[in-house]
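Students often ask why inverse folding is considered easier than folding. One informal answer: many sequences map to the same fold, so there is more than one right answer. In these notes we will look at a single instance of the problem. The structure comes first.
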């Protein structure tokens, strides 16, 4: 964990990071940690389960229940070229101002456009 935190600090000095070793069920620990977070970022797949799946069970569980915006990173990282847009999927039957505001903030932080 300390090595990952060091790598993040070197690559993104403006990013505040915190590492905690927790002995609990992953979803419960991440949901609890996300209660005070501005953003929860998780990988699409962990090491267990079925290797052929594109997404594991933890990521959708967190995305559906987290009290903050949640980003699920793909199992296969994108290429080295920078992305210039953020795509927001919304249910038009329900107001989504919070989702749009979160995505706008993400887009502004990386000089991207929102579509």
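Output (designed amino acids):
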């Amino acid at each position: 964990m300390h090595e990952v935190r060091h790598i993040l600090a070197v690559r993104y000095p403006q990013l505040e990071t915190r590492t905690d070793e927790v002995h609990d069920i992953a979803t419960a620990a991440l949901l609890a940690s996300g209660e005070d977070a501005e953003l929860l970022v998780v990988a699409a797949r962990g090491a267990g389960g079925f290797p052929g799946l594109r997404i594991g069970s933890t990521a959708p569980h967190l995305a559906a229940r987290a009290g903050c915006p949640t980003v699920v990173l793909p199992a296969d990282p994108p290429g080295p070229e920078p992305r210039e847009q953020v795509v927001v999927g919304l249910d038009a039957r329900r107001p989504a101002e919070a989702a749009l505001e979160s995505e706008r903030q993400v887009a502004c932080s990386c000089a991207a456009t929102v579509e």
